[in-house]
Fold Biopolymer transporter ExbD.
Amino acid sequence: MSRKPKAAEDENAIDLTPMLDVVFIMLIFFIVVSTFIKEPGIEITKPEATTAELKAASILVGINSKDEIWIAKEKVDERLVKVVLERLFAENPKGWLIIQPDEGASIEAIEKVIEAAKKVGIAKTSLATEEG
């Protein structure tokens, strides 16, 4: 009974190093090209709309059913909304504002955010809704 020499067995083995290199490069590629969704920091039930359009947000403002305003995962007093929007707009002057109101949010709270955005100079403002 003859066994193959050790060198012959090594030649028949599959080298996994190139495959691991390819998997690592693909992982880096997917991390670099993926986009991350910005969240306002609170759970919101969006009102339904018949015409819905998806946009990537630069400044995301959430308004819950208690008319509390949330920007960048922090609750913001309604008197400081303009100041916070100025800071965020200065970081990205080409961006726009997307307001995510809860179904129970009042029109007055939404209007305060829109008025603050106009005073800051944000020309593009959208209202986020669920497609219905």
Notes: The domain at 48-131 is CATH 3.30.420.270 (Nucleotidyltransferase; domain 5). The CA atoms of residues 63 and 101 lie 5 Å apart.
